[in-house]
Amino acid sequence: MKPLSKPLSIREIVRATGAGYCGAREFTAPVHSGQVYFTHICTDTRALTPGCLFVAIKGENFDGHDYIPQALAGGAAFAISHMDSDDPRVLRVKDTRRALLDVAGFYRKMIAPKVAAVTGSVGKTTTKEMTACVLEGAYKTLKTPANLNNEVGLSQTLLMLEENHGAAMLELGVDGPGQMPQLSHAAAPDVSIVTGIGVAHVANYVDGRQGIFEEKMRIRDGMPNGATLLINGDNDLLQDFGDERLRVLRYGMENPRNDIIAASLQDEGGVTSFDILWQGERYPARLPALGKHNVLNGVAAFVAGVTLGVPPEQAAQALEDYRPEGMRQRAVEHEGYTIVEDCYNASPDSMRAAFATLRDMPCKGKKIAVLSDMLELGPSEGKDHFDVGAFAGECGLDLLLCTGSLSVQYAAGAKSKGIEAAHYSDKNALFDALKQAAHPGDILWFKASRGMRLEELLTKFYREI
After folding, report:
1. Per-residue model confidence as pLDDT tens digits over 157-166
2. Cα angle 57, 58, 64; round to 5
């Protein structure tokens, strides 16, 4: 981890975490006077720096507590643990993950940048990237790297803040109940965006989609009074939401109660032009991305930036600098084919958004969806896959090819709407079928949950076609 821009004293660590000493009743003199400072906070013994604070994190396949003696012998000045120890250099807390997040939240308040945060079932990372584009025109901006959006990832991100960061764009991700409040308190957002409530990770919520809604909306917990909450007003669970403590603004295209509206959408060869209607003015924008869902993400980014002080004309223009990250609807021209790399994640909502976008794309040949399973959908997973396949049929796709145990329902749903579809036992069989079916001029859209590793098929296609 990079050095802290502002060192933290042992007294500040104790104040932030409520930690106590394991091996001593009272602080030693240099600690009590605040003379011990940390420039590095480490969670990995392979990245220790002399005099650092080591935080023992327990993961699925490891436990950092096993490495505390090694960390202290290797140069760490102190360690944070949720277990007792006879070593006076060990600070005891109830939960080391929470302690790390508490330290990060304390540090965020020390640096005091303007903070925007985003959560939602779909579009979090895309919205994060677009909002960062807007903010970067006015401030030195820190953004969540990749998808480091859980409690450890958010902690690492906040500890990257430098004194000259004027803004931060943070992604807050949860996959079960009770996680959002502590993320929000650490981030303390001045502006929060909720992109929508779908069914991602629904298997982890007893109350289903309603439980997801309630958890996502806890992003409000750490927001100061009067802060701005931006919500997708076209989403059925968000369209009527209000909060007297916060300034709630709705964005979208369909709800007449929306405060910010996207209008006059036009696709121009992979770039979407549209107008943002905001406070009686019209701001033209161009976004190098496809689909109405991405336009909505762009509108949220625009309003977040304007709320944090970016001039609206500049905010609209900045959207043109957005570039898709990773395998999130990245369009690639290859040997006459248009390939859409969309293998990072998948849910029923994002699948429907993809097919609606593919439906509207100009194409000289066939429109082919290459799919694998959506994960963590719970008891409704079979029906969800069938319904997604049926929606692909309603969008007029020419061919649906899929693999994965659940994906057989895609094919069944697509066939129920009269389009050609086939399920294959493995990726190699699917690839052989794709080679036979696809020709230059076709659009091939690859989409699945990350755990299905559909990018392996992409790599093979680029290598062999």
Report:
1. 999 999 999 9
2. 60
